[in-house]
Amino acid sequence: MCSQFPLERRPLTAKPCLLFDMDGTLSDTDALHHVAFNRVLEPFDIHLDFDAYRTQILGKSNSEIVAGLFPGKVTDEHERLIDHKEALFREMAETLAPIDGLVELLRWTRAQGVPCGIVTNAPRENAELTLAALGLGDYFQTVVIGHELPNPKPHPMPYATGLASLNGDIDRSLAFEDSPTGVTSAATAGLKTIGLTTSFSEEALQGKGAFIGIKDYTDARLWRLLEERVLAKVA
Description:
Strand order of the largest sheet: 3-2-1-4-5-6
Order of helices and strands: EHHHHHEHEHEHEHEH
Mean pLDDT: 90
Structural class: alpha/beta
CATH superfamily of the largest domain: HAD superfamily/HAD-like
Number of strands: 6
Strand content: 5-15%
Shape: globular
Low-confidence stretches: 1-10
Helix content: 40-55%
């Protein structure tokens, strides 16, 4: 997909890098987020089944979520609800585990000298806690928080920011995402994007610009792509 947010091609000193979303991409966190949302929405007589959670919540910024749940009548109470939900999620985060093959991939990037970054719409406190719970913080050289930028996902700015912070070569770098919102952000930034089918089908993610969809990081197609793209020599 051609970038709708043009990035200047990096000089030859630029390196390939890998940029990862967090929720649903590093770990299957969606079940915990789903439970936390339903707990805080109970006083409002709102219950979301998982399909509703996927369409109304997954991948969206907190401001978008509140506006969607309470159209036309967002109050301070509704805003505080999100803070409560995030606190509930953090209480449960110690149960998280990495998606299969992720640790092996990150060890490979370290051995190859390939820098990695996180690009997420989650609050920074969640990102730091999740990385600590997974024991993966040392593998990432940058953490980009969408809400700390003028435009979060699905705008391409978060991925453009992550790529720039690592001096990444856009032609040799990869992004990993699990939601249509995130895939849109990465793909329109000009990055070849791998979809994780944690919550959405390969077809749904490819419809937003993903190159392929994979269940986890053991997929042979991913490793072929890493060899062909990330390890490719610049002419």
